[in-house]
């Protein structure tokens, strides 16, 4: 069998950067709840935001309910909406255009500003939720509320900044959380996500400097005739091959071939294998091969490119969201060092939407109790102030603790106490202030720093506190 090297220039393949446009616009949220079809009970108002203008706004998506839809949210989360996913009040599948409202929260502070309660009574004790993320979702058509089709549920892959195992809780009516499942983090990198894309056979290659031909000079292997005038280029771009007693060609089915060279002389056997692409001489041979490839695999190529765009869009959005979370100081305050990931990794959490409303990835956590003080509040001038929405944040826990007339905390931790006056001025007591407290119980007057200017953005609020 004859091995014939072929000399040519190496091929440089172009890279294509693909972009995806998302259909989304902001709308100021409305604090309304829904009931299931046929349910006549009164809904209970449970949302009480301290700063309504600064809470996370809904994104508005216009959905064709007659086709499968994938949405890449501004955070990098994915919403998978199957066709026929929506029901009207009579339980009929909706065919008209649907308006989907969606917002999500990555940390307890965002939840607090939205006014969503995070308290739960569990194991005979008042506790709060430590969160790994939350979504708030509803849908309408023609101005009328819609409902989830239990046979075609919406699936959400939400970005999370918290590692570890959490439970899934839903609140769609009563203001009380109901556990509906478990949540395991799905950790990935951009590289691992791209490796999951649908596989497409390798396109034809231009013959490289190590390309070669094979020929059955002794006409002992008729199966090699179909490879006459065919070029092979080693995948590893290294020299390979030699004249042999026999040459075996195995189609690996993914656009590559395994070429095995065998030499048998007396009692000696030599064998060498190399994985190759089919290669073509630059010019008409290559152009024809590329055209045939594109026609044959057009459907697979379109699917792969579409999913690649989705992955790239998701990562771009996620990286932007992560940087904003970090810049706001929230990452350093809420992140548990024991659950820290590398900068190349991201966490996704998956849920199936059974009802529209608020859905959490959470776990109950106990109130801190080492120090328990009866609280009074003054401004820095000693003037008594009356506060609402009083909350304590403990560094390293993605939770916010609700207080009114008393405050408890762990003095070994960094703590931040916040509240709002009747005219929505921010009052806060910082970690350095907590370090000055020496008593463990009894009455204590918290001298709060009061922000007298109007806070106009969520970013400004974070700069003041974190």
Q: What labels would you give this structure?
A:
466 residues; alpha+beta; Immunoglobulin-like; 3 domains; five-stranded antiparallel beta sheet; elongated
Q: Biggest sheet: strands, sense, closure? A: 9 strands, antiparallel
Number of strands: 31
Count helical runs: 7
Q: Mean pLDDT score, rounded?
A: 87
| Integer-rounded radius of gyration | 31 Å
In percent terms, what proportion of residues is strand?
Answer: 35-45%
**Which class of secondary structure composition applies to the elements?**
alpha+beta
Please give the alpha-carbon distance between the first and last residues: 74 Å
Percent helix range = 10-25%
Tell me what the structure shows.
The protein is α+β, with helices and mostly antiparallel strands and 466 residues long. The chain folds into 3 domains: 2-16 and 201-296, no CATH class; 31-188 and 303-364, no CATH class; 367-465, Immunoglobulin-like (Sandwich). The protein has 7 helices and 31 strands. The strands form 7 sheets. Strands 2, 3, 7, 8, 9, 10, 13, 14 and 23 form a 9-stranded antiparallel β-sheet that branches. A 5-stranded antiparallel β-sheet has the order 4-5-12-22-15. β9 (125-141) and β10 form a beta hairpin.
């Amino acid at each position: 069998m004859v091995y014939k090297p072929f000399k040519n220039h190496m091929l440089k393949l172009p890279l294509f950067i693909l972009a995806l446009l998302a259909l989304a616009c902001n709308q100021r949220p409305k604090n309304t709840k829904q009931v299931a079809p046929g349910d006549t009970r009164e809904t209970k108002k449970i949302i009480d935001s301290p700063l309504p203008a600064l809470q996370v706004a809904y994104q508005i998506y216009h959905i064709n309910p007659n086709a499968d839809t994938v949405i890449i949210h501004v955070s990098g989360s994915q919403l998978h909406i199957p066709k026929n996913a929506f029901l009207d009040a009579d339980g009929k599948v909706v065919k008209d255009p649907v308006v989907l409202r969606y917002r999500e929260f990555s940390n307890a502070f965002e939840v607090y500003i939205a006014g969503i309660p995070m308290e739960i009574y569990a194991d005979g004790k008042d506790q709060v939720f430590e969160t790994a993320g939350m979504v708030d979702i509803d849908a309408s058509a023609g101005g009328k509320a819609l409902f989830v089709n239990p046979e075609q549920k919406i699936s959400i892959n939400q970005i999370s900044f918290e590692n570890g195992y959490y439970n899934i809780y839903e609140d769609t009516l009563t203001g009380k959380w109901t556990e509906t499942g478990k949540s395991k983090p799905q950790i990935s990198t951009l590289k691992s996500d791209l490796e999951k894309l649908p596989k497409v056979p390798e396109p034809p290659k231009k013959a490289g400097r190590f390309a070669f031909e094979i020929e059955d000079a002794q006409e002992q292997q008729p199966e090699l005739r179909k490879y006459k005038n065919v070029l092979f280029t080693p995948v590893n771009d290294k020299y390979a091959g030699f004249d042999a007693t026999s040459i075996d060609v195995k189609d690996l089915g993914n656009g590559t071939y395994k070429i095995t060279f065998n030499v048998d002389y007396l009692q000696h056997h030599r064998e060498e294998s190399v994985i190759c692409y089919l290669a073509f001489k630059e010019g008409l041979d290559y152009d024809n091969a590329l055209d045939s490839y594109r026609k044959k695999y057009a459907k697979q190529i379109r699917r792969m490119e579409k999913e690649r765009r989705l992955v790239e869009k998701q990562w771009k959005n996620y990286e932007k969201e992560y940087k904003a979370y970090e810049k706001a100081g929230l990452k350093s305050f809420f992140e548990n060092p024991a659950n820290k990931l590398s900068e190349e990794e991201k966490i996704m959490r998956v849920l199936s939407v059974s009802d529209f409303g608020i859905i959490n990835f959470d776990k109950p956590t106990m109130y801190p109790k080492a120090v328990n003080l009866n609280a009074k509040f003054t401004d820095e001038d000693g003037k008594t102030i009356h506060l609402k929405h009083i909350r304590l944040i403990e560094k390293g826990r993605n939770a916010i603790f609700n207080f009114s007339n008393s405050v408890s905390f762990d003095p070994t931790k960094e703590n931040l106490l916040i509240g709002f006056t009747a005219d929505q001025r921010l009052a806060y007591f910082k970690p350095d202030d907590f370090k000055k407290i020496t008593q463990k119980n009894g009455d204590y007057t918290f001298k709060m720093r009061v922000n007298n200017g109007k806070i106009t953005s969520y970013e400004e609020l974070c700069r003041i506190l974190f």
